[in-house]
Amino acid sequence: MWFITTITNLEEFVTRTVGWFNDYDEAEKIVLENQCDLWETIYNYAVIDWIPKGLYQGDGGYFWFKFNTETLKYEPIECPDGFDQFIGIGIG
After folding, report:
1. Which residue, 28, 31, 36, 44, has most beta carbons within 10 Å?
2. What is the spatial distance between Cα 26 and Cα 14, in angstroms, rounded to a whole number?
3. Are 22 and 1 in contact, with CB atoms under 8 Å apart?
4. Which of 12, 53, 89 is nearest to 65 (CA)?
5. Cβ pair 20, 40 in contact under 8 A
6. Could you tell me if 31 and 23 are in contact, meaning their C-beta atoms sit under 8 angstroms apart?
7. Phi first, then psi: what are they for 73, rounded to 5°?
8. What residues does each domain of the chain span?
9. Collapsing DSSP states into helix, strand and coil, what is residue 77?
10. What tens digit of pLDDT does each residue of 22-59 get?
11. What are φ and ψ of residue 85, in 5° steps?
């Protein structure tokens, strides 16, 4: 499943998993369009990560986004430094 998780900032790393989807394209569209105001004025980052079915799953892949306050939409970014070892952000 693809999980969408919003993140306040990279220092405090307060997260909120807002949904999950079977299809990446659907999840990506929701993030890129900031549907249902995912930003909520505080969630400057979003991550879509894949968590496979089963116990103790490893990294299934993830995609990072940063909110643009001028366009009021999230934009794709490279994984921030130091976060490439995080797995399962959407489920903790």
Report:
1. 31
2. 24
3. yes
4. 89
5. no
6. no
7. -140, 160
8. 2-77
9. strand
10. 999 999 999 999 999 999 999 999 999 998 888 877 66
11. -95, -5
